Every structure is written in C-alpha cells, then in structure tokens.
From TrEMBL, chain A:
This is TerB family tellurite resistance protein. CDD domains: terB_like_2. Gene3D superfamilies: TerB-like. Residues 28-144 form the Co-chaperone DjlA N-terminal domain.
UniProtKB/TrEMBL annotation, chain B:
It holds the Pfam family PSII_BNR. This is Glycosyl hydrolase. One of its GO terms (cellular component) is photosystem II. One of its GO terms (molecular function) is hydrolase activity. Gene3D superfamilies: YVTN repeat-like/Quinoprotein amine dehydrogenase.
UniProtKB/TrEMBL annotation, chain C:
It comes from Zoogloea oleivorans. It is found in: Cell membrane. Residues 223-382, 652-769 form the SSD domain. Coiled coil: none annotated. GO terms for cellular component: plasma membrane. The keyword Iron does not apply. It is a multi-pass membrane protein. GO terms for molecular function: transmembrane transporter activity. Keywords: Cell membrane, Membrane, Transmembrane, Transmembrane helix. Pfam families: MMPL. The chain crosses the membrane at residues 231-250, 257-281, 287-308, 328-349, 369-391, 412-433, 619-637, 642-660, 666-691, 712-735, 747-774. This is RND family transporter. Its main location: membrane.
C-alpha cells in the first residue's frame, strides 16, 4: 500500500479502465455514434437501421448475432448518455487517424441511407470531426467518399 | 462452628447498628452545629463584631464567618474551620493565640491558634442567644446574652457557671455587651437603659443609674479612665467616675449607636445604624451619615485607617476620614 | 422494478398532462386561500423545552413566582436626575399606562408609585414599612419637600439600583405579562403588544428631556417580528436575483420561468399547510420557507439542465421533458429525501419551536417532489424550443463543457487527487481543532437576534449600565413541608443554601425568605444587628416571617415554597452553567429530609434548560442525518467507495462550518441549531448528482478519470450553479436588520459553497484515490436509478 502511495505521488500510477462487457468500449462507441447519426433527423427508418448493421459487420468483421448484440448494447448506452462526448472520446482514443476518417465516412453513409440530407446531420458531422481531431477538409472528404459508396450501392449519383 | 456463627451474628448486628447510626447521623443536625463553609465573599457577609488578637484583627458575623487580617484590615482571610454556621455576635481575645466567640444557639467557641481554627467549647443551657463575651486573661472570662443570661469561667472556658447580674425584675433584661474598664471593673450594657458594674470579677453586680430608658447596645473604656455607653436614639453616656454617675453627650444623631473605638490619637469613632458615623472633633461629637446608609455594627482601627463592619461586610476607610 | 415504476409513472403523467396540471392548479388555489391567512406567531413557551426539569418547575410555579415574561420601562432623564416634579409625573403616567395595557398582569406592576413599593426600616419601634410614595402624595401635590422624602425612603428601602438608577438618572416600571390571558384564554400577540408599547408609552412620553427605554421578552419578540416582516423585501430581491441567474444559465425565459414557478407553487402549498396545521410563522424560523424555495429552484435547475441538453441534442420539448422526468425522478427524490430527513430529525429536539420548524420544512420539501419532479417536466412538455435557442444554448454548452473537461482532467489526475486528499485531511484536522469551544447560548447582553446598535439593544445597554439589578434571574425553587417557613431547621437550610449560591461567581446577589426574615428578627429587637438571625422558637420565627412583605413572592400561603432568587451578572451559558452546577452539587452534598431543591425558574433558569437541550441535541441530530445519508448512499450505489467519497467531504464541510460559526461568534441556540443540520441534508445533494453520473460511467467500463471528466461535463456546471442559486437565496439575508438572520445567511452561504466545492474536488479526489489504491475486483453496478 505504501509503495502504491509513493508511486502515486510520483505520478506513476494511472487510473485503469475496468473493461467489462462483451464488447470493447471503442466498438460500442462507434455503434453509438452511428445510432446517433441515425436518430438526429428524428426519423429512424428501416434503411438507416440496416445501414448501421451492415457497416458494423463490414468494418469490424462481426457475425450477425454479435452485431445485433452490439447494436442493442449501444442503444442502451446511448439512451443513458446525456451527450455523445464519451463516445467520441472513446473513438478518438481507440482508433488511429486513418480509422477515424473511415468511421466518419461510415457516419456519412448512415446519413445518406434514407436518401435525405438534413442540415442537422451536417452540423453533427462537423462537430464530431472536430472532436475526433480530424482536419477541416475531413468532413468533405468523408462525405464525398460516402456519397460515392451510397451512389454505387443505390445506383443513383449522390450529391457532390 | 457455633463460635463462628456468633461472631458473624455480632458482626452483622454491629453493622446494622452502625448503619442505623450513620443513617440517623445523616439527618441534618440542628443549626449551630453545621460547620461554616469557605465563602468567596466572606468579607461581605454581615459582620457584627471585631477584636484584636495581638497585631491581627479578627471579625465575626453571620453564617459562622470568621475573618482575620494581619495587615491592618487591608486583606482578610477566612478561618479554616468554624464548627457553626449561625450568627456569631461577639469575640474577645485574651492574648494573640487564645480567643473566644459567642453567638446564637448558645454557642461558645474557642480558638488556640489566633483565630484560624475554632471548636465548640460550651453550649449554654437552654441555647440562649449570647450577645457579648469578654476575657480578662486566658483563664477568666464572661459571657452575656438574652433574657439576663450571664456566665463566667475561671478555667479558660472548660466549665462555665451562671453569674447573677441583674436582680429581681432586672434579671430578665437582655444583656447586650460586656467590657472592662481601665481599673478592671466589669461593665454590662443592657436593654431598657440598664447598665451593671462588678468590682469583684463578676461575683457581685450593681445596677448603675444611667438615667435613660432606651436600650444600651455597646460601650467602651477610654484610656484616661472615662467610660462610655452607647445605645438607641443616638445615646452616648459618659462617666468620669468609674460608672457611678453618667451624663449624656450630644452625638448629633438619633440613629442607634452600636459600637465605638478610641483611636491611637485619642479621637473617638462611634458607629451605628443607617450609616451613622460619629467622630470627635475638637472635643465635640459630630455625625456624618454615610451615603450608602449601611447599618454599621462595629469599628476598629487598622493601622491609621478605620475598619467598619456592617451588614454588607467590611468597609475600610483610609486615613484622613 | 423501480425502472418499471418510473416508466409507468411517466406514461401516466404524460398521458394525462392536462388532468395532472389541472389537479395541481386546483390544489394550488385551495392552498392559496389558506396561505393568505398565514400569521407571524411568536411565543414564549414555544422556545422552551417543555419536558426539561427546569421548565417543568417553571411551569408548575409560574403563577406563584416571578415569571420570566417581564416588561421593563425606564423613564430616563437626559440631563440630571428624576428627583423633580416633571420626571416623577412622567413616571406616574407611564405606570398608569402600563397598568391599563391589556396583557399586563396588574398585580405585578411595580414602580415607585405603586403601593407594593415600601421602604422597610428597622427602628426602635421595630420593623416599619412605609410606602415610598404614600397615598397622600399625588402627582399634583409634589413639592420639593415631599420629593426629598420620597428620595429618602427610596434609599432606605434599598431601591437605588433596582427601581431607581444608581445615579438617579432614571426610574423603572416593571410588570409581568399574562400569557395566555386568564380571562379569555387567548394567547398574547407580541407583535401587537409591542406596537402598543411604542404608541402608548414611548411615543407618548418621550420628549426633549426624557428617554423612554423599553426592554423585556415581549418587546424583544415584537422587534424581531417587525424585523422579520422585512423578509418580504428580501424574498423579492432573492427572487429577482435568482431569476437573473437562472436566465444567464439557461438562456431561455421558458426554462427560467419553470423552476421559479414550480418552487413558488410549493411555497404556497407549504404556507397553506402550515396554516391548516394551526401553526404560525415564528419570526425566528421565517427563513425556512426561503431555504425551501431555494432548494426547489436548485432542483429545478437540474431538471431544466437535463431538458436543455436533450433539446440541444435534437429532442423536441415533449421528448426532452419525458426524458428529464424519467432521468431525474429517482435521483431527485433521493436528494429531496435526504433534505427531508435532515429537516425531520429536528423533530427529535424537544423544543416546540424547532419541532414546528421541522414539520413545516419537511412538508415543504416533500411537496417539492410533486412540484419539481412531476409538475415541472409536465409543464415543460407543452413548450417548444426554437432553433435560435438551440444554437444559443449549444454554443454556451460547448464552452462550458470544454471548461469542465479541462477542470476534470486536473482534478481527477491521480497524483493531484492524492495531494488534494491529503491537504483536505489536514484541513479537517485543523477545522476540528479550531471549532472546539464554540459557545452555546447567548454571549452578548440584550437580544442576540438583533444588531448591537438596534433600538432594543441600546435600551438594554442603557438599563444595565445604570441599574444594579441583573436582568437575568435564576430562581431555585425549594419545596418544603407545610409551614416550612416557621421551622427553624428548614429556614436555616435555605439560608445556608442562599449564602452558598451568593458566593458563586456570576451571581450578583441572592434573595430568599430567610435573608429578609433575619432582618425582620433584628427589627423585632429594636434593629440590633446582633439579633439578625433566624429565631429558634417557632412563634418568634413566625412573627419575624410575617413582617416580610408578601408581594415579594418569597413564600406562598401554605409555606410549602421557599424560592431563592439569584440575580446573575449576565446570561452567558458559562455563567448559568456554573450556577446550575453549584445548585446541583449543594443539594447532593446536603440533603435535608422533606425538602426538595428544584431547578429552576426565572428567565435565566429557562435559558439554562434551553442551553442544555440545544447543546445535547446537536451531536445526535448530526449523527442521525449522517447515518441516514450513509444508508441511502449504500442502498443506491451498493459500494463502500461511494460511502466514503460522499460522506468524507460532507464531514469536512461540516467542521469548516463549525469553525466558521466560532469565528463569527455565532452561538449554538434555538435559532441556529437547525441551520447546521439542514446544511448537511442539503449539502449531500451535490454529491449525489455528481456521484450518480460517475457511477454510471464506471459501470460502462470507463476508467475513473474519464468517468469523472464525463460526470463533470454532464452535471458540473449545473452543480456549481445549484450552489450559486441556493447561496443567492440566502445571501440576501446578510443585510437583514436581524442579526441572527444575517448570521444564518452567511453561515448557510458558506455551507452551500463549501459543500459544492467539496463535491467537485474532494469527492472525485477520494474516488480516484480509492480506485487507484484499491483497484476494483468486480464489475461496477449501475446506480439504482438508471434504466
């Protein structure tokens, strides 16, 4: 105990995360942010729901059942949270810059999923990009990429 | 076995007896036998008499208070043990060590150490109120009190015998004060203007013709042989012939006078009720009434100051007054 | 299960919004009717611990002995003395005015002019009792001659220092009040009485040459009541300041209106209930509704904070309101319950006024559960928030979040946490040490509730400095067998008791029947001082006793009562304690069969009782509140770490509060005892708000530092702001005309701010420290209120 106290004084000890639960926090965080993007325009359509699951499965290579569990947990966490800061933080800490850019693109893909773009979504993206420590042009980059992919998927040219 | 049983029985019996005694003993004893307590304000108790014990002053009063001063009345300390808590009315010392005090409940107290520790030497029969005491030496002493009570002792107070002072109708008169004149004669001042003199150490007494009917409370003998009697209505009587004849002095007050003292410089100070202080100025007596109107009971000189005693305790008036 | 209940309630209330509001509105109207009838009610008996030995003695003999409810009026000559026609005439007029004033017990009116004032003289003819001002002298027949006669008799009677000032500059009229009125049974309205005194005595008789001084319990209470009425202005000021602060915080008029309105509504309900229960508002407790209002606003802040955050994140008014309802129902109820418990434990103090206060405050807090946790969100659900608000609020929110995040990092850094904890532990030791020797009761003469330069206290100073009598009297009641006053032994016992008590430092003088009987005995014997002793024979003793005037109340008709009146130098608790201890030790060391020595009557006597009760109540009260908090914390978090993290900061804050009290010379009295207890019950709220979020994030698997950062971001500003609103509510009292209100205002402000600072610094520091030093072994359970 005394040794711990001393090392604490020296600033050597750090708080340890109590990583519990079936999923890594950063995974849950990504799922939560995806859900948030889905909910931001007040309409949670089937298309958006599917998009969320599909994106998670694809990016993290998870089987369907696991993805369902992940989304369910993310729903609960999201409801408990007062804002998205903790999730953005978890993403920022848990992923490298390249992956973060990719995640931002995934968020845009959800936004495009129902075919309607709202100003709210744009605002959300800008804010999240800042929190994820991505550059100014990151938002546009991600949007373009997402637009391309959505266009590819649906076969209609997305907004440029 | 039977011995043991008897012994145990005896033990138990004595225990019970002892406890019963203790129980009855714990009943509050009659007043006069409850010892005085050490009081922070002892010098503020009602004090009524004072005497010299060598260089010290000893004053007595209510609640069995006895206080002593060795510095002429500047500071006082209370006696260590006084076995009564009633009013002590008079005190007299034969020498610096041996002194006697009397008071209500017929108590006569004695001290052998100059007034620090006192014991009950005698309780007068019938517990009369004793009002005066005087010891001419360590063996011969006199005590007087209410309803003509008078006692004398020749063995330093171990035993007391009744002393006839007044005769006939005079026998029941309160005797308020007893003192000695220069020539060894004893004087007793009493109520209703009665005064008595004894020239044979208390064996025989004669009534003096004072010519007054108001009670006489106190008296003193002056160094030049003159005797004074003090009393109600501001009465001051002076005798230049050893007490055979008396003339009244103009005191300047109609307050009752209780006690007096002749100062080292020959001046006279008499005190009384209502704050009356009578002092002699150039042969005449003049009265000053104290602003606080305190009833004063005794006065003594302390160094060059005057020490007054009254219902609020000790008052010391520095020289010049 | 609780979860289901919460959701069920949400569905019910939000499903029937108009019905809910309608019912609440109707109730408010009903209560409003009763609230309008609320009156101030001061009471002498209310402040006394009725079960205390001394108060029982006091009550038993209140008709026979000098009461503690006296009124003293002094006619003071600005220049010179009162021995002239003008002043004596004024004295007569004042005596008459007091005599005829309703509420005054006529038998007790005493001044130079009253027939019960007699100069007792010992003369050759015996005891002579002469009226100081005889029946033959009237106001019109005053001449220099008979004035000097009056003066003479005053001196002889020993009234210099009691009915007449030591330097003759003033004369006194004393009277006792009859409360309740023996004829009608109605209680005395002190406020009314005090106003009458001002109008009919002071205003009428004071002039260029004369001051009129009025002191006594009734006047004191009247002045306090009057000072307390200015409370309405303070309330208005506090309300405005609070409104301004809430707007600054929320940037929305709607969100400002909601908490203020709901708190006001609960205040209306509270006042209505008080009236229904038959209580009035005691001037010493008038601050409690303020406090409860402030609590309401602070809870309201939590609600609107939640709603605002939801709105910023895109929810509409309705959704935000429902989420706020479900999110805060349980934690909010919990926080209110702790405040409720804090107030309710005060019921255990056996002083009626504090019990009343406890009940009214508890009721107020309980009502808040309805107004703040149900009414507010339901009402909020009707409003919508425009994009402008969202933008405005969003910006402010972001800025605050950044601030809090930075703060959180520094606070929760494990190394800082250790240093902070150690520093606080040192501070705790210092605070405990410094807070020793807090005094109980009142130290200053006069009324401590009023400022030193208040009219009342200036009057007290004038009277105390010129008159010799103590205004503080403690009466030792000696019960004797029948005809005890004719028995020498009994009288001698009381005499010795009186002498013993006269010698206690702090006792200016003592008076009892034996004291005066001895004087009478001397009087019977021509006034000879050598006869000033209790006669041994019953008949003679009886004769002496009968000389003592009965009006002095030193014995009763059957002679079963021999009171010993002790006049004290002051009413400091230390002085009174010493006297009480002296009485107790005397009676234990000197028992007398058939005689009982009882404490205590007189105003100092009942003060002794109050001091004792207050002093002995404080610790148990605090312990009860603490125990309840510990239990609640455990039930909610089921974690011993939570208990430490929540309760240690509370302890530190409490001792800092005690230190503060000592520094400001705020004594522990009937008025201040509730304050510290309330402060604890309210202070723990902050801990709950913060720890809630902390625990929740921990249960998500975050490390403690991040969890705290989150928690701080979520509720940090709201918590700080809650403390600010509470402090605003009470800080305005510092300007009160009533010193005790000012003191309490400062003390509460201090406690609120300190508790808040503790909650955002020491609490996380402890949590971090404990987590790092004793790592968790199992999963963290989510707090009880989360769904």
């Amino acid at each position: 105990m005394l040794e711990r106290l001393i090392s604490l004084l020296r600033g050597e000890l750090q708080a340890e995360a109590a990583e519990r639960g079936p999923f890594e926090r950063r995974l849950v965080a990504v799922a939560a942010l995806l859900l948030e993007t889905m909910y931001v325009d007040r309409v949670a359509s089937e298309a958006e729901h599917e998009a969320v699951k599909r994106l998670l499965m694809a990016h993290f290579h998870l089987p369907t059942e696991r993805v369902e569990q992940l989304v369910a947990l993310a729903e609960v966490r999201y409801a408990e949270a007062l804002d998205d800061w903790e999730f953005a933080e978890a993403v920022r800490v848990g992923f490298g810059p390249g992956e973060r850019q990719e995640i931002l693109t995934m968020l845009w893909e959800v936004a495009y999923a129902d075919g309607v773009m709202a100003k709210l979504e744009g605002r959300l993206m800008k804010r999240l990009a800042r929190q994820l420590e991505l550059g100014e042009d990151a938002v546009e980059l991600a949007r373009a990429a997402a637009g391309a992919r959505s266009g590819l998927l649906r076969g209609t040219p997305g907004e440029g | 076995m039977r011995m043991k049983a008897t012994a145990t029985l005896a033990l138990v019996a004595s225990l019970i007896a002892g406890m019963t005694l203790a129980a009855t003993g714990s009943k509050a004893p009659p007043s006069g036998e409850t010892p005085a307590t050490q009081a922070r304000l002892a010098t503020k108790a009602g004090l009524v008499a004072v005497a010299r014990a060598g260089d010290s002053l000893v004053a007595v009063g209510d609640f069995g208070t006895v206080v002593r001063s060795t510095d002429g009345g500047l500071t006082w300390s209370q006696a260590a043990s006084v076995p009564v808590s009633g009013l002590l009315t008079a005190v007299s010392f034969a020498d610096p060590k041996n002194g006697w005090a009397v008071g209500h409940g017929g108590v006569i107290l004695v001290t052998r150490d100059g007034g620090n520790n006192w014991a009950i030497q005698h309780v007068a029969e019938g517990k009369p109120v004793l009002l005066g005491v005087h010891f001419t030496d360590a063996s011969h002493g006199y005590a007087v009190g209410a309803y003509g009570t008078a006692l004398s002792t020749v063995d330093g107070g171990k035993s007391w015998t009744p002393m006839p002072v007044g005769e006939g109708r005079d026998a029941d008169l309160h005797l308020n004060h007893i003192f000695a004149g220069r020539d060894g004669a004893l004087f007793a001042a009493g109520e209703s203007g009665a005064a008595f003199r004894s020239r044979d150490g208390g064996a025989h007494w004669e009534r003096l013709h004072t010519g007054v009917s108001g009670s006489l409370w106190g008296g003193l003998a002056r160094r030049d042989g003159r005797v004074l009697l003090l009393g109600m209505s501001g009465r001051v009587l002076e005798s230049s012939d050893g007490g055979s004849s008396w003339k009244g002095l103009e005191s300047g007050t109609s307050q009752a006078l209780t006690s007096g003292v002749e100062r080292a410089d020959g001046g006279l100070v008499l005190v009384g009720s209502g704050g009356a202080v009578v002092a002699s100025r150039g042969g005449q007596l003049a009265t000053v009434i104290r602003a606080d109107r305190q009833n004063l009971a005794a006065v003594v000189e302390g160094g060059s100051a005057l020490v007054l005693l009254g219902q609020s305790g000790i008052l010391r008036e520095p020289a010049g007054k | 299960m609780i979860e289901k209940l919460v959701i069920g309630l949400q569905r019910f209330f939000f499903g029937h919004r108009l019905l809910t509001l309608g019912v609440l509105l109707a109730f408010t109207a009903l209560m409003g009717v009763f609230a309008a009838q609320l009156r101030m009610s001061a009471g002498f008996d209310k402040q006394l611990p009725q079960d205390h030995e001394y108060v029982q003695t006091f009550n038993q003999y209140r008709d026979v002995l000098f009461g503690a409810n006296r009124i003293i009026v002094v006619v003071e000559a600005k220049k010179g003395d009162i021995w002239n026609e003008k002043a004596l005439t004024k004295l007569y007029d004042v005596t008459q005015a007091l005599f005829f004033m309703p509420g005054v017990d006529r038998r007790t009116v005493t001044s130079l002019w009253t027939p019960n004032t007699r100069a007792v003289q010992i003369t050759e003819e015996g005891m002579k009792a002469e009226d100081v001002i005889g029946g033959d002298v009237t106001v019109k027949s005053l001449t220099p001659d008979n004035i000097s006669g009056i003066r003479e008799r005053t001196v002889i009677g020993g009234f210099i220092g009691s009915l007449v000032a030591n330097d003759g500059s003033g004369a006194m009229v004393v009277a006792e009040l009859a409360d309740p009125d023996p004829a009608t049974g109605k209680r005395l309205d002190y406020f009314d009485f005090s106003k009458k005194l001002e109008a009919e005595v002071r205003d009428k008789f004071a002039d260029a040459d004369t001051n009129i001084r009025i002191i006594g319990f009734a006047k004191q209470m009247g002045d306090i009541s009057e000072g307390a009425t200015s409370v309405v202005e303070f309330f208005a000021l506090a309300f405005l300041l609070t409104a301004g602060a809430v707007y600054w915080y929320t940037r929305s008029w709607v969100l400002t209106f909601l908490p203020l309105a709901s708190s006001l509504v609960s205040v209306v309900w509270q006042f209505g209930t008080i009236t229904l229960l038959g209580f009035g508002l005691d001037p010493l407790a008038v601050l409690v509704p303020f406090l409860v209002f402030a609590i309401g606003v602070s809870h309201g802040i939590q609600q609107v904070n939640y709603i605002a955050k939801e709105v910023i994140n895109g929810a509409d008014g309705f959704t935000a309101a429902t989420r706020s309802f479900t999110g805060l129902l349980v934690p909010g109820t919990l926080a209110l319950i702790t405040a409720f418990v804090g107030f309710a434990t005060l019921v255990l103090v056996p002083i009626p006024m504090i019990r009343e206060l406890a009940i009214t405050a508890s009721v107020g807090v309980a009502y808040k559960i309805v107004t703040n946790l149900i009414m507010l969100p339901v009402l909020a659900s009707f409003f919508s928030f425009d994009a402008a608000f969202v933008a405005r609020a969003g910006k402010v929110e972001a800025m605050r979040n950044r601030l809090m995040a930075n703060l959180g990092v520094h606070i929760a850094n494990p190394r800082n946490a250790l240093i902070g904890t150690l520093a606080c532990l040192v501070l705790l030791v210092v605070a405990v040490w410094q807070s020793q020797g807090r005094h109980v009761g009142h130290v200053l003469p006069g009324a401590p509730e009023l400022h030193n330069d208040s009219r009342y206290n200036k009057d007290v100073e004038a009277v105390v400095s010129r008159f010799g009598l103590g205004l503080d009297m403690l009466t030792v009641v000696v019960e004797t067998p029948k005809d005890g006053c004719y028995q020498h032994e009994v009288m001698a016992y009381v005499d010795r008791l009186t002498w013993n008590l006269s010698n206690v430092p702090g006792v200016l003088s003592a008076q009892s029947l034996p004291t005066l009987t001895k004087l009478a005995a001397s009087g019977v014997n021509e006034g000879n001082p050598k006869w000033a002793s209790l006669p041994q024979e019953e008949l003679t003793l009886g004769e002496a006793v009968r000389q003592v005037p009965e009006g002095l109340r030193l014995y009763n008709a059957e002679c079963t009562l021999l009171p010993v009146n002790l006049y004290l130098a002051d009413h400091k608790a230390s002085t009174i304690k010493e006297v009480v201890a002296a009485v107790k030790s005397y009676r234990e060391a000197n028992p007398f069969p058939g005689v009982t020595v009882r404490l205590a009557s007189g105003n100092a006597g009942v003060q002794a009782a109050t001091n004792e009760v207050v002093e002995h109540s404080e610790l148990p009260m605090m312990l009860y509140v603490y125990a309840t908090i510990l239990v609640l914390v455990f039930l909610v978090y089921r974690d011993w770490r939570a208990m430490i993290a929540c309760c240690v900061p509370l302890t530190l804050a409490t001792f800092l509060g005690y230190w503060f009290m000592k520094s400001l010379d705020i004594g522990l009295t009937v008025a201040t005892l509730p304050v510290m207890v309330l402060a604890v019950g309210i202070g723990v709220d902050y801990a709950f708000y913060i720890y809630n979020r902390l625990q929740m994030h921990l249960s998500h698997g975050e490390d403690i530092v991040t969890a705290f950062k989150q928690a701080l971001r979520e509720v940090g500003v709201a918590t700080v702001f809650t403390a600010v609103t509470l402090s605003i509510g009470v800080a305005t009292w510092s300007f009160s005309a009533l010193k005790f209100q000012a003191d309490m205002g400062m003390l509460l402000t201090f406690m609120f701010m300190v508790n808040m600072i503790m909650a955002i610094t020491l609490l996380p520091a402890l949590a971090v420290m404990i987590d790092v030093l004793v790592p968790r072994r199992g999963p963290v359970r989510a707090p009880l209120m989360m769904h």
